[in-house]
Amino acid sequence: MAFLLRGMAADGSIRVVAADTTDLVGEAVARHGAARTAGAALGRTLTGALLLSHVLLKNPQDRVTLRLRGDGPLGGVIADAGLDGTVRGYAHNPEVELPPRSDGKLDVGGAVGHTGDIEVIRSHAPYGDPYASNLELATGEVAEDIATFLAVSEQVASAVLLGVYFGPGGEVERAGGVLLQALPGADDAALDLLEANVKAFEPLTTAMRRAPLVDLLRDELCWGMGFELFTDPALPLAFACRCNDTKALDALAYFTPEERERMIREDGGAEVVCHWCGERRWIEPERIRSLAAEEIRCPDCGTLWYRDAQTTMVREDELCACGRPVELPY
Ligand SMILES: [Zn+2]
Ligand SMILES: [Zn+2]
Hints:
- Helix content is 31%, strand content 27%.
- The protein is α+β, with helices and mostly antiparallel strands and 330 residues long.
- The strands form 4 sheets. Strands 1, 2, 8, 9, 10 and 11 form a 6-stranded antiparallel beta sheet that branches. A 6-stranded mixed beta sheet has the order 7-6-3-4-5-12, covered by helices on one side.
- Helix 1 crosses helix 2 and helix 9 runs antiparallel to helix 10.
């Protein structure tokens, strides 16, 4: 099962967050039918969002959204994570597969693109406006982009390691991430040792294949720094979406009644695919037609004015897109 570890080193001056996300990245890759390069980008982003949630969020209901949008063929990758250990995410073009780089690693930077931006959004539920900050991409390799974001936007020096390793059959064999942060008061000797430890460390997923994550933290990355583990047992992680049948039906409200009747006529219903998790839901004709009873539309142009149980889309006395004054029946 996927899990997350939190700890400290160097007398509390180095913060450590690490995750073994093998199972949840495997599930995400399967759900989206992702090729290896796109799957690695998605897996790194999902893992990065989970690590970020533990350094940026305070309340259990808060979420962090991590999005990388570059000029590569992937067309963007996004993940949404929270302190409850759940994460969901997708890549716009999950079929992207590129030749490996000269060092044998998957070309995630080539898939994401080297020019573009990284955006981090903190949502505070149920109150408070989301807080977004963005920055130019550093490399498109995800880990470097997150580390640069934390250094520039949060002014916290951080080392970020992320990896996804595919087995010979194309299955996710190892996936994980480590985030090491120097807190105010960290002394130079500790930072020098940390830097040397990180430099001497193998690629994360290579190391994860030979030793448990907690051993890698204690004996290698935080070697000589008095690593203290705070999470025993480890915190469970899971790929989890918040989509459901009601939201799937709501998605059809964006189509006009005529378009919905055509779906019923031509397809016998409608399939709604959740872009976050890939879940497919079949909506029967009677449920599609139930939408019409909840809608008030412009008699002239058909623009949706109001839907039952939803916030009002237009106000009384505003003008519709066609120029007709809006009249709501109550
Ligand atoms: Zn979903
Ligand atoms: Zn109108």
